[in-house]
Specification:
The complex is a heterodimer of chains A (about 550) and B (about 190).
Chain A: H1 2-30, H2 38-52, H3 62-85, H4 102-113, H5 123-126, H6 129-159, H7 168-193, E1 204-207, E2 213-216, H8 222-230, H9 251-275, H10 279-305, H11 309-313, H12 331-344, H13 359-371, H14 380-400, E3 405-406, E4 409-410, H15 413-439, H16 441-444, H17 452-466, H18 481-510, H19 527-559
Antiparallel strand pairs in A: 1-2, 3-4
Chain B: H1 2-29, H2 31-34, E1 38-40, E2 46-49, H3 86-102, E3 126-127, H4 129-134, H5 136-143, H6 147-157, E4 158-159, E5 170-172, H7 173-188
Antiparallel strand pairs in B: 1-2, 3-5, 4-5
Classes of the chains: A mainly alpha (about 550), B mainly alpha (about 190).
């Protein structure tokens, strides 16, 4: 425990040290302030806008913003569909990978555009090098910057006065040029130095010490690996994802990947605090997220280091914890924190197999995805947290009999309708398809682990899809049309309904006349509000899903042995 | 139309310029790692990747972890057995029995768990130092190298936690066996 605590503490301190300047930088990028890096970045942006003929200074209403976002995402989806469908005959295919079948393409294209990165294929055998770079790597950038843009538009909406919330193309291009690309270039080189391959050559064959032949898959891994984490994407180059030694060769690359996927979501509340001119409120939100995160991290750590109850009971060694599905170089600590961060920041990259986690250990990633807001995915996690904040203000306001206000703007029925729509779409998109899967042989046939764990496998798949996470209880035989189509639809619902609803809230709040703060105003930048916020997330998140958690992981925990 | 143009521009920048630029720079700066850290023997023949596990079954070698894909590195992954899965429990029992036969006197609880469980990737290049030490009696019998010598070999190839803090101590099985081969050759010569 002592050694784990030191590792966790160092990582969290590093996170905070990175998040503070990063939050400020993000705020400056999206406030379109002058910055000393303009000399370098501005000419590139000008070229892009000139070539595309877009006026990036044109302000958009929330609906215009949504339309531009959906249009760009739709075009990229179509592009991805064509490449994946016909990759067999396209260049950069040294290993002779064949075309992907239509429902797999449907699933994969949606999966990467929605920042989910659920994978019903294995990269080694399913994708050509061209697909890995021009579809997968490309969408890892565009989907994460789309999420980031949504968050920034949302923040503008609630902090400014007027009809508009910014220009989508401006946010989209600046997010790439000033944030994601520079960070990805830096991280790629660090990963290659540590052993992650980056080559366009075909797989290589070696003769092992025992004289057998071993074919070793490789490719442009590092350039995908870096943005996979920075953009909270999570789709691996290889089937085993970040458990694969080529994706994550050492404990140090493990920390780099953890920090890469965690830093931007953690910097969002700080960026928000700066733009809203209320840094304290940013920290209250950060604190709320961190409090829930620590509870979850502690739970998964304790469960995994105690070992698998079924093996411990049979007299096996329990000193190493539960090592099935984990890598030697990571052990329990580096696996537990990776699992917590990847589902908190809804990245979906895994460095150990979540299906093999102990019952309580496996419940942690599931719950973090059900919350979908403890740091959360690029941009959208923060927006979800703000949704809970508005909800918290509303509930607290009703309890004490005051008009709920946030940043001096009244929260009224129009906003609440959109918030409830966003709030309910998540559990409905999880629970209804889960129930349907249990009713059909197409769904039931995919379950690979019998008993209560099988329930969790199905639940996890849809939770991961709706939360746009992308990790899985991978034993599930999900490479079938049923799963490709059902999870594809759930990913779309999970992504776009809440984006549209919450930008509508932002547009509506932007339009409102601010009311002056009085002594009766419920403060949203103190510890009391932090407790209200955390309570709202826990209460609504936990209560919505409690029954199904009892059927899955909790029942497995009670019956294992 | 404008949206199409900007989308395609981002495809070119993020999907072609960036990955190709990264490939070029990586090949220039870190050619060994960028190609997959492929180790060569004295004759220049590729014998494996430093960071990808290999299958070892001979008694003369230290063995790696259980791999349901038999260390086939053209793929990766594992069976994804649940903690309550019966096949997983049976497989672990079977592996433990096998290991105990090689090491008489030991009991089930003595077998280091990493040695008898499936890694996540199926390609784990490393085992815990305990798992390496547990195999010393068998390797000593098969290679006629003394247990003391093997023990110091394992110590030499034990990598500590990164920066003394992060991850776990571990032994790279391929490197250990390569060194073992060299010792056996020398003894013969």
């Amino acid at each position: 425990m002592g050694s784990a605590l030191i590792q966790y503490t160092v990582i969290i301190i590093l996170l905070i040290l990175i998040a503070i300047p990063l939050g400020r930088y993000i705020a400056s990028i999206f406030s379109n302030e002058n910055h000393r890096t303009d000399r370098f970045f501005l000419p590139m942006e000008k070229v892009i806008f000139r070539l595309s003929g877009i006026d990036n200074r044109l302000e958009m209403t929330w609906w215009e913003y949504v339309k531009a976002l959906l249009l760009v995402n739709g075009i990229l989806l179509g592009f991805a569909y064509l490449i994946l469908r016909f990759q067999g005959g396209l260049p950069l295919n040294p290993n002779g990978i064949t075309n992907m079948d239509p429902t797999s393409v449907f699933n994969t294209a949606i999966s990467f555009m929605t920042n989910t990165d659920l994978q019903h294929y294995s990269g080694e055998s399913g994708l050509s090098n061209l697909s890995q770079i021009i579809v997968i790597t490309m969408m890892m950038f565009t989907s994460s910057v789309t999420g980031l843009s949504v968050a920034m538009a949302f923040i503008r909406g609630i902090t400014r006065k007027g009809k508009t919330i910014g220009n989508f193309f401006q946010d989209f291009v600046r997010g790439h040029i000033r944030l994601m690309l520079p960070l990805a270039i830096l991280l790629t080189l660090m990963l290659v130095a540590a052993g992650v391959p980056q080559t366009l050559d075909a797989n290589t064959t070696v003769q092992t010490l025992e004289g057998a032949k071993q074919v070793i898959a490789r490719g442009p891994v590092a350039s995908l690996e870096s943005i996979k984490h920075l953009g909270t994407n999570g789709g691996g180059f290889f089937g085993a994802n970040s458990a694969h030694p080529f994706e994550n060769p050492t404990a140090l690359t493990n920390i780099l990947e953890i920090l890469a996927m965690w830093s931007i979501p953690a910097a969002m509340p700080i960026a928000y605090g700066r733009i809203a001119k209320n840094p304290k409120q940013g920290w209250v939100i950060f604190g709320g997220m961190m409090a829930i995160f620590l509870m979850m991290l502690l739970t998964v750590h304790l469960a995994e280091s105690a070992g698998n109850p079924a093996l411990v009971e049979r007299g096996f060694d329990s000193s190493q914890g539960s090592m099935e599905g984990k890598e030697t170089r990571f052990g329990i600590s580096m696996s537990a924190i990776f699992t917590a961060v990847t589902t908190a920041a809804t990245t979906g990259t895994v460095n150990n197999m979540h299906d093999t986690l102990t019952p309580i250990g496996g419940m942690v990633p599931l719950m973090l995805m059900m919350f979908n807001t403890v740091f959360g995915g690029e941009g959208v996690g923060f927006v979800n947290m703000m949704m809970y904040a508005l909800l918290g203000v509303f509930i607290a306001g009703l309890m004490v009999g005051r008009t709920p206000e946030f940043l001096g703007k009244k929260i009224e029925s129009r906003e609440m309708k959109f918030i409830v729509l966003a709030l309910l779409s998540h559990p409905l998109a999880i629970l209804i398809p889960t129930a349907i899967a249990f009713l059909t042989p197409l769904g039931m046939g995919a379950i690979s682990n019998e008993g209560f764990h099988g329930i969790t496998q199905v639940l996890y798949e849809f939770t991961s899809s709706s939360a746009n996470n992308g990790s899985g209880f991978e034993g599930l035989g999900d490479a079938t049309p049923f799963w490709n189509i059902s999870t594809g639809v759930v990913m779309l619902i999970g992504r776009y309904i809440s984006i549209i609803a919450l930008l509508a809230v932002a547009g509506s709040l932007a339009n409102k006349q601010p009311v002056p703060e009085t002594i009766g105003t419920l403060r949203t930048d103190n510890a009391t509000f932090g407790v209200v916020l955390t309570g709202t997330v826990l209460l609504i998140g936990a209560l919505t899903f409690l029954p199904v958690l009892v059927l899955g992981p909790i029942a497995e925990f009670l019956s294992i042995g | 139309m404008k949206a199409i143009r900007i989308s395609l521009l981002m495809v070119v920048i993020c999907g072609l310029v960036y990955p190709l630029l990264m490939t070029g720079l990586s090949q220039l700066l870190f050619p060994y790692q960028a190609q997959g850290s492929i180790m060569k023997d004295s004759k220049g023949k590729a014998l494996g990747s430093e960071i990808i596990g290999q299958k070892f079954t001979s008694d003369r070698y230290f063995h790696g972890r259980v791999s349901s894909i038999d260390y086939d590195a053209s793929g990766s992954g594992s069976e994804n057995y649940a903690p309550s899965n019966k096949q997983m429990i049976e497989r672990t029992e079977k592996e433990a029995t096998k290991r105990l036969k090689e090491n008489p006197g030991a009991t089930k609880g003595d077998v280091p768990l990493d040695l008898i469980t499936n890694s996540g990737s199926g390609l784990d290049p490393q085992i815990s130092p305990e798992a390496a030490r547990f195999q010393i009696p068998r390797v000593a019998r098969a290679t006629k190298v003394s247990e003391e010598k093997l023990s110091s070999l394992v110590s030499f190839y034990t990598e500590k936690k990164e920066l003394g803090v992060f991850g776990e101590p571990r032994v790279n099985v391929l490197k250990l066996n390569q060194a073992l081969d060299a010792i056996v050759q020398k003894n013969k010569g």
